[in-house]
Amino acid sequence: HVQAAQLVQRFRLAALADIVIANETEFALLADVTTFDEKTLLSLHAKTGQTLVVTLGAEGVAAASDGAIQRAGGLSIKPVDTVGAGDTFSGYLAAGIDAGLTLLQALRRAAVAGSLACLTAGSVQAATDIAAPTLQQWSTSKAQALSFLPGSTGDERLAASKREGLLLLDKQGN
Predict the structure, then answer these.
(1) Which among 82, 94, 128, 83 has a CA at the least distance from the CA of 18?
(2) CB-based contact 77:28 (threshold 8 Å)
(3) Cα–Cα distance between 79 and 58 in angstroms, integer?
(4) Predicted confidence band at 127 (pLDDT cuts at 50, 70, 90)?
(5) What does DSSP say about strands 61-65 and 19-23: parallel, antiparallel, or unpaired?
(6) Which residues pair with 51 in a beta bridge?
(7) Residue 90 phi/psi, 5° resolution?
(8) Helix ranges restricted to H, the chain
(9) Cβ of 164: how many Cβ atoms within 10 Å?
(10) CA-CA distance, 30 to 41, in Å (whole number)?
(11) Are 61 and 111 in contact (CB under 8 A)?
(12) pLDDT-based confidence at residue 147 (cuts at 50, 70, 90)
């Protein structure tokens, strides 16, 4: 369990950020609620003015920014190891925003990266061997980018991407 002094310090640090990223449990602590819901997310966003991002595991991610909720889904996968998924998500979100993607585009990219990070044991291995090469294909076609995903043929991956609503966007959002 996190001790009370550590929680106080985390709240102070969160208050200083323009963008706060939390998982469901962390969000519940920050918002002083028992479970995540979008109404509370939007209310806390209105109160703080911060962009609030909540990772929701297999349900993807929800964010409150500019007075509205935005959602992005990850991939439906059979996770091998979830260690590092949140860190991978956060890194790709920050990189996407820094690269000039809209928040929704950056959320989609980060959610996919977080999913991909779960496909192999070890967070560094997953982020570097699977997520990075797949997501580097941003300027190529969706089918080419999907060819980097492990475990099936290109046609099967393309069909899966359509079924899962996977959007691999180029820098113009196409």
Answers:
(1) 94
(2) no
(3) 10
(4) low
(5) unpaired
(6) 19
(7) -60, -40
(8) 4-16, 24-31, 38-48, 85-98, 103-116, 123-126, 132-135, 142-146, 154-164
(9) 15
(10) 10
(11) yes
(12) very low
Percent of the chain, pLDDT > 90? Answer: 37
> β-strands 19-23, 51-55: how paired?
parallel
**Do 131 and 119 contact (CB within 8 A), yes or no?**
no
More confident residue, 12 or 149: 12
Sheet strands side by side (includes 51-55): 19-23, 51-55, 61-65, 68-72
Q: pLDDT of 31-62, one tens digit each?
A: 889 999 999 999 999 999 999 999 999 899 99
pTM score = 0.71
Phi/psi of residue 82, nearest 5 degrees: -90, -5
Q: How far is CA 60 from CA 3, 105, 119, in A?
A: 29, 13, 16
The one-letter amino acid code at 55 reads T
Q: Quick one: tokens of 91?
A: 């890194």
Question: Strand, helix or coil at 168?
Answer: coil
The residue count of the chain comes to 174
**Beta partners for residue 21, in sequence order:** 53
67 confidence band (pLDDT: 50, 70, 90): very high
Residue range 4-29, pLDDT digits in tens: 566 566 677 788 889 999 999 889 88
Q: Are 72 and 108 in contact (CB under 8 A)?
A: yes
